[in-house]
Amino acid sequence: MTKKIAVIGGGIVGSTAAFYLSKNHQNVTLFDEGTGQATSAAAGIISPWLSQRRNKEWYFLAKEGAKFYQTLMADLSQYEPVHDIYQQTGTILYKKTPSLLSKLTKLATERKVDAPEIGNILPLTEKEVKDVIPNLLLDDDALFVSGGAKIDGAKLVTSLINQLEKMGNTYLNQQVTRISYDNNQWQIHANGLIHSFDQLILACGAWVGDLLRPLDFFVDVRPQKGQLIELQTSIDTTNWPVIMPVGETDIIPFDNGKILIGATHENDSGYDLKPDEALLNNLKEQAEASLSAISQEDIHQIRVGTRAYTSDFSPFFGEVQDLDNLYVASGLGSSGLTTGPVIGKTLADWVLGEETAFEAYRNKPNQYIYKNQ
Ligand SMILES: Cc1cc2nc3c(=O)[nH]c(=O)nc-3n(C[C@H](O)[C@H](O)[C@H](O)COP(=O)(O)OP(=O)(O)OC[C@H]3O[C@@H](n4cnc5c(N)ncnc54)[C@H](O)[C@@H]3O)c2cc1C
Question: Where would you find the membrane-spanning parts of this chain (predicted)?
Answer without folding.
Answer: none
